[in-house]
Design goal:
By secondary structure, this protein is mostly helical. It has helices spanning about 20-25, 30-50; strands at about 5-10, 15. The termini are far apart.
Amino acid sequence: MERQSFTTDKASGITNDADLWATETIGNAKYPLELFLRVITVSLETNRVVESLPKLEIP
């Protein structure tokens, strides 16, 4: 999330805005949010799969 924040470099005045980048490059201002939601979905599905695995018994 730190990389998605809006920052302006004091020395150069260059603005780093992920939403602006998404609009200009991909043409979708919602891209950062959609990417974050995909990460959440993968995490939830991973937990679901891991919980469904049989218990590992080590003798």
